[in-house]
Amino acid sequence: MKYAMVFPGQGSQSVGMLGALDAPEVAATFSEASSALGWDVATLVKSGPEAQLNRTEFTQPALLAAGIAVWRVWRKQDQPSPVALAGHSLGEYTALVAAGSLEFADALKLVQLRGKLMQAAVPEGTGGMAAMIGLDDAGVEKLCAGFGGGVLEPVNYNAPGQIVVAGERAGLEWLEANAKAAGARMVMRLPVSVPSHCSLMKGAADKLADRLAQVTVRSPSIPVHQNLDAKARANPDEIRRALHQQLFRPVRWTSTIQGLAQQGVGLFLECGPGKVLTGLTKRIAPTTKFLALEDPAMHAQARSLIAS
After folding, report:
1. Which is more confidently placed, 293 or 192?
2. Catalytic residue, candidates 89, 101, 193, 196
3. Are residues 173 and 272 in the same domain?
4. Boundary of a domain, candidates 189, 217, 234
5. Position 284 pLDDT exceeds 80
6. Which residues, other chains included, contact 240 with Cβ-Cβ below 8 Å and sequence gap of 6+?
């Protein structure tokens, strides 16, 4: 069975994540991350405090390290390589590390900087994100276009009928007041202070691009389908440009999973903490199979499916 690996982004973190995956690769990866960053990633992941783990500049490198730890546990099992990789938002960096396009240490420093730049771009409390349930893509786009008071944009096309919107606080309040009349079943404000993937992040993206220009990027050994347009790129400069634009353009996750399923991928393995992407994949490509590898029991099931 052809399979792809998908790497989660911000929101999948929790204190104690990967605690059930008792493998030497996990401890070694967290130790390597700590050395690269100059702070104790393992202790933060294991014991918190939760408030610090949820701060963007710590969340992003901790999640990247967790995703690579699971990837290394999986690769030790001598399985065939996946036919493709993809990551949701931050997870795209994890996928590029797994594919050998970015060095682990470089990516850790990049995403820590990315988190700092994102938080600094918009004063805390002035922007945010909300999940829209029950409207199709066109419906959400039309609704956001009806707000004339500032920035309100669809930013995460996560699954059919589940789209995340980002913008200024006034826009989110307007959305909450008007969404149900437009046909939405629910508007759920997300517990984040950074309005990711919208035009408010353009300044942060430009500063990140300066750092990306200094980092070695190689052609991936496994195709990495990027958030910008669900396409895989081999050219390092094009990968850099897509990472730059990713910060202020929408995440095309539905298109990514649909495209991989159409190419014959029958199994998606979530490589990191939690089951967020597994839940989304069930809605996007329900005829495929999906397993979350944070659970050690899922590794044997995955091996069996790949062999079938």
Report:
1. 293
2. 89
3. no
4. 189
5. yes
6. 209, 212, 213, 217
